[in-house]
Amino acid sequence: MEKQSDLLLDIQHLHTAYRLQGKFYDAADDVNLTLKRDEILAIVGESGCGKSTIASSIIGLYDHQNTKVTGDILYNELNLVGLNESLFNKIRGDKIGMIFQDPLASLNPLMRVGDQVAETLYYHTDMDEKARKARVIELFNQVGMPNPEEMYMMYPHELSGGLRQRVVIAMAIACKPEIIIADEPTTALDVTIQAQILDLLQDIQKQSHSGIVLITHDLGVVAETADEVAVMYAGQIVEKSDVKTIFEHPLHPYTRSLLNSMPQNEGDSDEELLVIHGTVPSLKNMPRTGDRFAARIPWIPASAHEENPQVHEVEPGHWVRCTCWKSFHFEDQPAPQEVNSVSGE
Amino acid sequence: MWKTVLRRLLIMIPQLIVLSIIVFILAKMMPGDPFTGLINPNTDPKEIARLRQAAGLNDPIWVQYFRWVGNLFHGDLGTSYVQHVSVTSLIADRAVNTFWLSLLTVVITYALAIPMGITAGRREGHWQGTLIQIFNYITFAIPGFVVYILGIWLFGYTLGWFPISGSVSGSASGFFPVIWSRFYHMLLPAILAAVISTTGTVQYLRIGILDNRVEDYVRTARSKGVPEKVVFNKHILRNSLLPIAAFFGNTITGLLSGSVIIETVFNYPGMGQLFMDSISQRDYTTLTALILLYGILTLIGNLLSDIIMSIVDPRIRIQ
């Protein structure tokens, strides 16, 4: 059984709303998540589903004038929502490290990469310049960069994409944070490098016992690395479970569609992939009542959906929004006979 | 770094050759010759022909060009046929005045424009930003000579704060009084020229700040827990100053062309005034030398820009 101290992050009823033409619209709508020590929590979903919104809400980096965050993000009993900036700056980089999508854009083009990593140490440790440099070189070693001393003096444009992402990772883990938020860390990298970076993240986690929030749209990445998975659609979490359950017994229509739209056999070019028709409604046009995914599975009768879909715990630790999964079938398949059959495929 | 400078210097050589050819052709295309206007109607045409022959004006054009270029290398820019002194010494006296006036103008321009640009960028959408934008539109729209004449009328004539013409007061004697008098004479033209040349710098800086503050690396810096003040100074501002460095050469060129007007309006004995005088007096040798000099100074301004860029932006050095 988990101890209380294993709980790193407890997100309760998080609403993050962006101001569009004077009105606020929820981009993250009633999000409940927990992150434990030694856990990789993957947040999956397509573009615009609100996954990056959650990341920026956790670390408190959003346009404060045009964003409204409500609910609780508890880190060791400390509520990060509405925390004042100078306190937050003590946590950012020290207790929470962040890894970004585009490693080139994430690095200051005018600063040596070593100095950029050392900057984190400057604000969170009392190391002197020499100690900081030694620590950076140690970090570069840890993230698998060749010739760390030489690398210290390089500028971002002189490094390859994979090396740049290693610099960004070194920066995020410099102060041994308890929480690492990785926002699409492999999206901008090519496939061979992706695998290396994911391995590196897992290694780091094993060594430091931190919790990682991994934000991605790539189910392959999720299957390879995650422990827990939250599937998001249109600002809401639609299904949440451990990784095995998500891949073996997915329930929510969106999760099932997402998995069916993933190529199964790499060599089989005849394989027909499922296409989820339609698009995610824009933030402004998002329906605020009813099942938000209903519009993309029109063959499912409206009566199958809950009027105001809630998250239900169908098995211990397995949460699904709405009850429509019970009568869901793919368009080209017959409707399930038994309402209770969980694994319909 | 030195490689970049050397390469840029080498690139300047063909540029200078082309420049000298163009200037020479322009000079040749101007109506008349050095003797036009010097010769009274009673002069024997044979004497004129003899003078032309002696001055080498009957030689093939390329011979004349290479003679001219050869003389340039010896620092001989020819003789002013109006003032009857060597153009080199004529320009040298004026160039010093123009140099100091331009330097003071540049210093005041940046002293005004950088804080203004920073404020405009940081306070975009607030009254401070709007005020600077309005100020910029006005100063950009009003022609320099209008500002100068208004300035002379208001600060020189009406308020009597500044001298309104010349470069030094005749009554000043002693080293420091003369230096002060020269500085005092430069102050009003420099301030006025600076005020109207802030636009480019302010706008580049403002746009730079607006663009850079939403860049990913700024978010990265914040995610490291870097205080907002440092995020601005170290990350946003440094990157926003790059276009200013690139714009530096342009600023220099603008000052040189601006000096023609400002020195004429303020009756300030610099190269700009000499330029205007040599046009109105048809002093071709002086004019040609000045055009060549302005061209060279423009090239040097661009070179300075490139050198500064290669110092501040590590991405430039690689190429």
Protein architecture, described:
The complex is a heterodimer of chains A (345) and B (319). With 345 residues, chain A is of the alpha/beta class. Chain A is 29% helix and 23% strand. Chain A has helices spanning 51-59, 85-91, 113-124, 129-142, 148-152, 161-173, 191-208, 219-225, 243-248, 253-260, and strands spanning 7-20, 23-36, 40-44, 67-75, 78-79, 96-99, 179-183, 211-216, 228-233, 236-242, 311-315, 318-321. Chain A has an 8-stranded mixed beta sheet, sandwiched between helices. Chain A has a 4-stranded antiparallel beta sheet with strand order 2-1-4-5. In chain A, helix 3 crosses helix 4 (129-142) and helix 3 packs parallel to helix 6 (161-173). The two termini of chain A are 33 Å apart. With 319 residues, chain B is mostly helical. Chain B has a single domain, classed as MetI-like fold (Orthogonal Bundle). In chain B, 76% of the residues lie in helices and 0% in strands. Chain B contains 14 helices and no strands. The termini of chain B are close together. The chains are: A alpha/beta (345), B mainly alpha (319). Chains A and B meet through helix 2, helix 3 and helix 6 of A and helix 9, helix 10 and helix 14 of B.
Mean pLDDT of chain B: 84
The helix tally of chain B amounts to: 14
End-to-end separation of chain A in angstroms reads 33 Å
The helix content of chain B, as a percent range, equals over 70%
| Radius of gyration of chain A, CA atoms, in whole angstroms | 21 Å
CATH superfamily of chain B: MetI-like
Largest sheet of chain A: 8 strands, mixed
Estimate the global geometry of chain A from the Cα principal axes: globular
Multimer state: heterodimer
Q: Please give the most extensive interface between any two protein chains, plus how many residues each contributes.
A: A-B, 32 and 22 residues
Helix and strand topology:
The complex is a heterodimer of chains A (345) and B (319).
Chain A: E1 7-20, E2 23-36, E3 40-44, H1 51-59, E4 67-75, E5 78-79, H2 85-91, E6 96-99, H3 113-124, H4 129-142, H5 148-152, H6 161-173, E7 179-183, H7 191-208, E8 211-216, H8 219-225, E9 228-233, E10 236-242, H9 243-248, H10 253-260, E11 311-315, E12 318-321
Parallel strand pairs in A: 3-8, 3-9, 6-7, 7-8
Antiparallel strand pairs in A: 1-2, 1-4, 4-5, 9-10, 10-12, 11-12
Helix pairs in contact in A: 3-4, 3-6, 4-6, 6-7
Chain B: H1 2-29, H2 45-54, H3 61-73, H4 87-122, H5 127-141, H6 144-158, H7 175-196, H8 199-212, H9 216-223, H10 228-240, H11 242-265, H12 271-280, H13 284-312, H14 314-318
Helix pairs in contact in B: 1-13, 4-5, 4-7, 4-8, 4-11, 4-13, 6-7, 6-11, 8-10, 8-11, 9-10, 11-12, 11-13, 12-13
GO molecular function (chain A): ATP binding; ATP hydrolysis activity
Subcellular location (chain A): Cell membrane
GO cellular component, one term (chain A): plasma membrane
